[in-house]
Amino acid sequence: MNKSVLFFLLLLFVQMGFAQNDLSWQGYFSYNEIKDVSVSATAVFAASENALFSKNTTSNIIKTTNTVDGLSGQTISSVFHSTASNKTIVGYENGLLIVINEVDGSMLNVVDIINKQLPSDIKKINHFMEFEGIAYLSCDFGIVQFNLATMQFGDTYFIGNAGAEISVSQTALYNGFIYAATNNGIKRAAVSNKNLVDFNQWTTIASGIWSGITTVGLNLYAVDASGYIHKFNLVTDSFAGSVRLSQPALDMRTSDGYLVVTTLSRIYIYNSQMALVHQINTNQLPEPNISFTCATIIGDTVFIGTKENGLTTTTLSLGVTFENITPIGPSRNNIFSLQVAPSSLWVVYGDYTSDYNPYPLDSYGISKFSATGWLNIPYEAVLGAQSMTRIIVNPSNENEVYASSFFSGLLKIENDVPKILYNQTNSGLESLTFAGPNYKDIRINGTAFDKTGNLWVTNSRIKNGLKVLRPSGQWQSYAMDAILDSPNDNNFGTIAIDRNGTKWLSTNGDGVIGFNESNTRFKKITTGADLGNLPVSDVRTIAIDTRNQLWIGTTKGLRILSNVSSFQSDDQMTTNPIIITDDNLAQELLYEQFITDIAVDGANNKWIGTADSGLFLVSPNGQETKYHFTISNSPLPSNVINDIEINSATGEVFIATAKGLISFKGIATAANDDLSNAYVYPNPVRPEYQGTVKIAGLLDKANIKITDIGGNLVYETTSEGGTIEWDTTAFGKYKVASGVYMIFISAQDGVETKVKKVMIIR
């Protein structure tokens, strides 16, 4: 069987596990940006950027649904709950439709709209309207029928002039007609007409651009693009102006007998006689700088969707107190960088373009995840630090954290409180000066602690690009104009420090720079056979593995420096590609791939992130691709991988993507110093368990032998890192019988040993 077939079977296996909610994956999504809401009699359903949550108003139970459960990582545009069929329908900007059966939680992905021969930018699903078991989908090209019983699409109505595509924002059923609010007037047709695919059956009854239409009681209302609500007059068969809003309407719906209209800063609630019974303004909410997106009502409770702060409730009768019911998560889904500490995870959201341009500047805060949940430190508390691109925890003091700002300097956080913003006035950091002496722009990116507690920092686009903050609080700078071709144009990526204390710096124009302060000497690895053999000089990430090799990720592929100790002896260090064989053809591993990050796990495997091709897991020498995770075969919400971090104690791999944070629970934990903490799980292995047995807390290169109670050997292996797996078979041939099995563990030198037991129940 060739490798391509094996790889296909691997992906099939991964997809099956993913579809069955594989517990190896965990999602850490933000639910703050509410796109749409829907209701049943006892629950509200809220759609965020690419995840859902619902709250039962009777039990107060909140349920979340994200890509781990089967949703797509694409951007959601609308959601609708059908009480009659007990199904929740999710519409996406790319035309994808996902139907969730609330009875058993099963999901169906319907790709008919995606596959339509239409421009990709007009497939957005804007609204759902249900009538007699048929959902009418308002899309950017027209209207589509979807049968909620058969789960099949029906007719598509192209109702523009001469049957052209037309953007439909909303539909409503009134007096036997379907009314459609479009960007070219309000159209209508008799719902009983069997030939609605004929555009001639649709009549334009109002011109202009319309953003919403709905019925309230016995009346039909529509709102135009300027925010003017119109009431339909049956006598004149036309719309007439009724209420002028202060802003354009973002959402208009009927809920519990009320007309609810949402603008950016106000929510208007009208009764069936169009009398304003309640108004909610953004300045009434306790959080600052809030924007409304939508609102709905169940009984006396108003559910308010916001762009920045999730879902908030208030009462219709009083409306003076507000409660946020959003599931706690990170502030945003687009996490640019993260750092794992023994008991916490830190993330930042600032970014820069592919050419290291931080503009427009980001004004986001910082988030921390720990056993107590998520702590979101808002922008107002970070001392003005903008576009924070990296974060690092002091390995000697987990309560001391530093966030790099690619504009403002270096932010020091102590006990979760931002304390100092190091900049050009209070540290050795320097500002760009090309715009004059008064221009302040301090571009700090890569950071790394060495084993003596020094914090090394890169300062881009200046002469003294390498800085160090000593534990004493003193700063020191190192000039790099002799090694960089153009220091004022250079941008730094990440830093790695090897066991010899050599600092390895990635740059966007000079490849990799090596530096060791013992002799204050810089060396460069760049393009050209005689200068380092990189594919391009734009290096984005570097990592040092357990075999003392430097893995280098560039915008055009991967290179390996076989021994970092060559820095001390070789005038010119040379890298090499990894050549693999596929179907008897030699090729370069990750040829031409834009590599964004490389992380080394406890077994020396490499987790490699790319700019648009997902995540790769390769063996220690790179010859075997163990996994290639994408949005198609895994819960990854995006193929754009921003950063990867690994919890060395648990083996959990955290993956920051452009559309959410997710983790994969691997088995590659870091090796232990001794066998005192070795353990086996699960134990006992019960009949319903289908996974593997893990033996953790191991030394590196430990020998593990498993025997039955009679001493017959059934499995033997050598550990790579701190954990191994046993599939409970006798050397892969057959499942072992019920009974107690002995696990004999010994160090590589045989000095230290440990014996454990596991019970297997078939």
TrEMBL record:
InterPro entries: PorZ_N, Secre_tail, WD40/YVTN_repeat-like_dom_sf, WD40_repeat_dom_sf
Record-linked NCBIfam families: Por_Secre_tail (TIGR04183)
Pfam families the UniProt entry points to: PorZ_N_b_propeller
Keywords: Signal
Positions of the PorZ N-terminal beta-propeller domain: 44-203
Signal peptide extent: 1-19
Organism of origin: Flavobacterium bomense
Protein's name in the database: T9SS type A sorting domain-containing protein
